[in-house]
Specification:
This protein is of the alpha+beta class. Helix content is 20%, strand content 40%. Strands 1, 2, 3, 4, 5 and 6 form a six-stranded antiparallel beta sheet that branches. It is elongated and about 65 Å long. It starts with a helix and ends with a strand.
Length: 333
């Protein structure tokens, strides 16, 4: 009887904490109503590496680690380590916030349980599905409900005290932080090898893209253009041809080439997809070689977190999922 009462208390505590945190968090952000279909789709998202994958796009959704926090770690007297990871969930189409994804992991068994927490304005059916998960999934895994209740209650306490849901400057996170963009004068390489400013590109234009499967350049059509107005800081990397780096004294290397974008815009590196702001000196990016109509490696010789600020930024969506800015391969967000 005592255990049943405790389970009921934990269940209601978790439900109340969830409702409070959803009202508080989404009152501060531009949000949209989550449907039960979206909730089910978000639950199926698989995170390859919970400790490293803090920001990524999957199935029409953006997952961003809540307040950039590491996992909550719980070490119970049964010797089992349990963790809770929190992600904010946004729609890819318009970057509006839908809710939270809480992922529970049992380090001993490897069991992973996702809980999609709807925003305050979500459909009633979405809330019903979440409550069902608490009841029928949460109670079957020892320790899950108590860890989830603690995390949500802790975050709610932080919000009430003004400590969470804030940037370093003390204001709520802005929607613009989730945009991936270039300045208006960023040159887009067209299919014929010429270029024009990204601000002049229109939907339907054919640009030079990159096919990840064949690892080759290919014409690709622009399917969508995003434009955002505000205050945006651009990060930059300087690139030099790997051939120039190994040239002897008879050849003089050219001046490094600058690629700039918002820090979170993904680029293609020798080790795969990476946000521009995470690229380090010594890494290799890829650029268009007109002589061979292929890509060649360029090594990063310098990075800078803030090159300049601009008021308007642009981003393209393409059929191939990649295009060239200043002849350097960049990826769709």
């Amino acid at each position: 009887m005592k255990n049943n009462l405790l389970s009921i208390l934990i269940f209601f505590s978790c439900a109340v904490a969830t409702q409070l945190i959803s009202q508080r968090v989404w009152a501060q952000t531009t949000s949209t109503s989550m449907t039960v279909e979206q909730l089910k789709a978000i639950k199926t998202i698989k995170v390859a590496n919970l400790d490293k994958d803090t920001y990524f796009k999957s199935g029409g959704f953006i997952l961003d680690r809540y307040e950039e926090r590491p996992a909550y770690v719980f070490n119970y007297t049964d010797g089992i380590t349990r963790k809770i990871y929190l992600y904010k969930v946004f729609t890819v189409e318009d970057t509006k916030e839908l809710g939270l994804l809480a992922i529970y992991k049992n380090e001993k068994s490897g069991e992973i349980k996702p809980f999609v927490i709807p925003g305050a304005s979500a459909d009633r059916k979405a809330w019903d599905a979440y409550i069902d998960d608490l009841k029928y999934v949460g109670e079957k895994e020892p320790g899950l409900m108590s860890t989830l209740t603690f995390v949500l209650s802790r975050e709610m306490a932080g919000l009430l005290s003004g400590g969470a849901g804030k940037t370093e400057e003390g204001g709520a996170k802005k929607k613009e932080e989730y945009n991936f963009c270039f300045a208006a004068d960023a040159p887009v390489t067209l299919a014929d090898g010429s270029s024009k400013a990204i601000s002049a590109v229109t939907t339907g234009d054919v640009v030079l893209g990159y096919d990840a499967k064949t690892k080759s350049l290919t014409p690709t059509r622009v399917t969508k253009i995003d434009t955002h107005v505000g205050d945006f800081s651009l990060a930059g990397v300087w690139l030099t041809s790997t051939n120039e780096l190994t040239a002897d004294v008879r050849g003089l290397p050219g001046a490094p080439i600058l690629l700039e974008a918002t820090a979170n815009h993904p680029v293609l590196t020798a080790s795969g997809r990476k946000a521009l702001g995470d690229v380090k000196a010594g890494e290799v990016l890829y650029r268009y070689d007109a002589a061979t109509n292929s890509t060649v490696g360029y090594k990063v010789v310098r990075t800078e977190s803030a090159i300049r600020s601009v008021k308007t930024v642009y981003n393209l969506a393409t059929e191939s999922g990649a295009y060239l800015i200043g002849e350097t391969v960049v990826l769709d967000k």
